[in-house]
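Morning!

As promised:
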Amino acid sequence: MRWKPARTTLATLALGVSIASIASAALAEPVTLTLGSWRTEDLAIWQDQVLPAFEAAHPDIKVEFAPVNTNEYNAAIQSQIEGGTGPDLITCRPFDVNNEWIGRGYFATLDGLAGLANFTDTAKAAWTVKGATYCVPVAAVLAGFYYNIDIFNELGLTPPTTAAEFTAVLQKIQDSGKYTPLAEGSAESWQLAYNGLYSIGPAYWKGEEGRLGLIDGTKKLTDPDFVAAFAAFQAWKPFLPSGQEALSYSDMTQLFTLGRAAILPDGSWNINQVTSTGLNVGVFGPPAVEANGQRYLQEMPDMAIGINAASTKQDAAKVFLDWVAGSEFQQLYVNSAPGFFAMSNQAVTYDNPLAQHFADLKTGALLTPRLALDRLSAGTPPLDDEIWRQLQVMMTSDTTPETVTGELQTGLASWYGPQQAK
Amino acid sequence: MTRPATARWSLFLFVLPALAVYLLFAVVPLFSSIVMSFFDTNGEAGNLFVGFANYVYLFTQPVVSARFWNALANSAKYFAVHVIVEVPIGLLLAALLTSGVLRRSEGVYRTLLFIPATLSVVIVGFIWRLIINPLWGLVGFPLLGNPSTALTTISLMSVWQYVGIPMVFLYSALLAVPNDLVEASRLDGASPWRIFWDIKFPLIVPQFGLIVILTFIWTFNGFDLVFALNGSAPGPNYSTDILGTFFYRSFFGSSGQVADLDIGATVATVIFTIMLAVTGGYFALVQRRLRAHMV
């Protein structure tokens, strides 16, 4: 057959060129990105589920998941980046630590990354400085109360919705003499704050109203609302196991999973562990102060991913982040790692029933992140560290909530501008 | 025979590899951290010489200086427990091992007592945390949860682990005591107690002094056991915070604290100075006089 020769040649040429370019792209060594993270426990999830899904869609990019221990992560990233050996993609801590990193120029800007439109400003707040967002939000964690459904049924209890009901439930479990009401120990101070005070406290300081009030200086930690929150937490003391002063986080989890304690104040990230012994576990949110009062829930931005400014593979990194911002990743990640919750405004369903319960607690509740991590911990002494320490003192000695909040306020006002002006 | 000049050169050559490693990995980092403590490396202007500003900050910022003095006092307490408990027990064990009462089982005991020193601190910390756990362990009292007992408890764990070190050290010193002296005193009718305190101990006093100062260096450099048990902000209420963890928190940061390399280097330099002064003072004033008792 004779077609128009000129066009055929041209078409063949064009075809040849495009085949050549496809072939060269396929033959070329794929770009390998390293992803630094503190989630050592997620290694299998990333390697077997998340990253293969990405690489199937983008055969020219390989991603290597390179986690280090949580406690060493900040130090490791800082020394790697200062030494020029940082990973291409950096998992971002929320708020102050990350703001400091942004200030030091660790991150490349994400200008023009389409996927960022999937997140509200509140969702991006933990990684945004002066209106520019440097990390794509991956997941948030929630805090609440796991309870042993069998124990509740045996004692005829229902999950409490108000502070008064909560105390009544604890008292009834105590009176039964068979179980410890609350699996809670003071050896690890972080969880007194994150799973205790920051969970029940927002109902007293009215969530964002109180938190932002501290940030702009219109509220003080010595205000009655805050003192009441600390007092409500201190009121747990009679319901804790004996020797709680030296019980660690893993002791608490074990006490609950062995069925010896009825309620475990904990974060959503522990879902797999609390159900690991086949226990019949339910979850309820922090109680409201009064009947029919507003419910609050701690939703803590936990993880985001940004690009190392010194990386030589910016384009590939942006392709990856665009994918991370999409619903395929969000759905895949939160269902591979139960206990983490997607932050984008796309609908996500949870296969794990307990995770779905946790997600349902968000309905009708006002969300707020942990109290002291945004700006209030960017000086010396950092408010968050001080709260950990003071809560430990309060729960292991006779120190009163008034003394504790007074010292915290003094510490904060010693360096934080907006609190000094007043 | 090699000529003296050649011998000197080969001496230098043989020392060179070790010297190079020592310079590269000990002396250079030491000096660069001292230099770093006089700079501000986080500023927008890049590296800026700030003189003693970092030291002024460390000793005058109310919170930071309070934590520093607290850590120093805790390190002193950590050392005191080791000197009061570990070294005497090590001496007692060494004396028993060399006394001959154990006969053939001496080697077995020596090995058994030394084994904990070879374990990882993470394992030691984990085992002891379980043993003294108020829920599942042997002790109902929350030893690690009480500010007045926590540091002593951790110190005693460390004593348990490392008691083999002074034991072996003093054991080898006791073995070197000339047997004829011991024999002579025994023939003169001296009791074993008398032989130990009047013959053997005076002869190993220099080694005893050395193990005390080594214990000082090890405990003031201590970090790992506290970190393994209580992390980088060791509670309750910083009652188990020692210089090592204080330095770590400054230099590497902790969950709520951003790392500050300059302040970290300053802390490291202060710790180094303290240890240099104490060790140097000890050698100048005490160790030299102890030699008088040598045979």
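Chain A touches chain B at residues 71-72, 74-75, 78-79, 82, 96-97, 100, 104, 185-190, 241-248, 251, 255, 373, 377-378, 380-382, 384-385, 388-389, 392-393, 396, 411, 414 (CB under 8 Å).

Hope this helps with the figure draft.
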